[in-house]
Amino acid sequence: MKKTGIKIVTIGGGTGSSQVLLGLKKYPVQLSAIVTMTDSGGSTGKLTAKYKVHPMGDVRQALLALSNAEPADREFFNFRFAGSGLKGHSLGNLFLAALEKATGDFEKSIQIIKKLFSVEGNVIPVTLDFTDLVAYLKNGRKLVKEDQLGLLEKKGYHFKKLGLTRKAKANPQALKAIKEAQVIIICPGNPLRSVLPNFLIEGIKQAVKNSKASVILIANLMNKKGQTDNLTLFELVAFYEQYAGPRAIDYVIYNTSSFPPSLLKKYQLKDESPLKTDKENLSRLSYKTIGAPLLAKTGYRQKKGDVLLKRTAIRHDPKKLAKMIMRVVSKTKQ
């Protein structure tokens, strides 16, 4: 049955968006997930390069998160091949690539998957134009394509600003969703590779600015070396507003859980460090900050066949995160 509650739009990509969607789908809300379309790494990168199809990895994760299909069916869609030839490829990615080649329409492919896997909510590519990310460095050099941004963790690669190889117009469906939204959530996730690229798409930043919706930023648990390095929460929000627009954010939700040494030792990636909260700066800002214990107790275990990318294992707890989001949403309705 179609939900008729408050309209919530999420903006992001990858794991961060899916964690938000997994928690919120349990509530009586109407969800629309706007996802980035500049992924060029892993299974997605190989398929887009070979078959000239749209990047599908972030779309697949959002569809899975919103799926009400049986667990076995979701596992089937998320299955990864371990053998040679298709090693590391997700069946869902192959499925979406095949559907796009067969129909010639990426959005139609998404609608087919929605029906097959009982997806409740909308999954919207931020753009249907083909473009790639560019990271401009302080030494005048640049890194082209999303997967190359991993080099920013190396010594001597000092990030300056993020851009695109060519202009890309926003998907009209994304603009419509933002216009109709009552709440917009900027999801956690890799800042330069998953979240902020959405705001480089022509029309998105202005649409969020013009929207009457309350904008909530979910702060990351961890900083990324070469991207946000040792930024505090206050500095992180300022960095995001360089791309989303000044005073674009109304609320910031952040984690107050301490990180158990055992969790960091077992799951922390070499390019990650916990985000620090500078409470002395938070009391005099234009946005409201809400802290809560949001850390998942156990780290994510990467699946055996998932060998093409190293994924973040320290994650938000979807239930705790959704509960806090809905608490903020209730305030916006008052």
Automatic annotation (TrEMBL):
GO terms for molecular function: LPPG:FO 2-phospho-L-lactate transferase activity. Coiled coil: none annotated. Keywords: Cytoplasm. It comes from the Bacteria. It holds the Pfam family CofD. GO terms for cellular component: cytoplasm. GO terms for biological process: regulation of cell shape. It is found in: Cytoplasm. Transmembrane segments: none annotated. PANTHER family: GLUCONEOGENESIS FACTOR-RELATED, UNCHARACTERIZED PROTEIN YVCK-RELATED. Required for morphogenesis under gluconeogenic growth conditions. Belongs to the gluconeogenesis factor family. This is Putative gluconeogenesis factor. It comes from Candidatus Kerfeldbacteria bacterium CG_4_10_14_0_8_um_filter_42_10. The lineage of its organism: Bacteria, Candidatus Kerfeldiibacteriota.
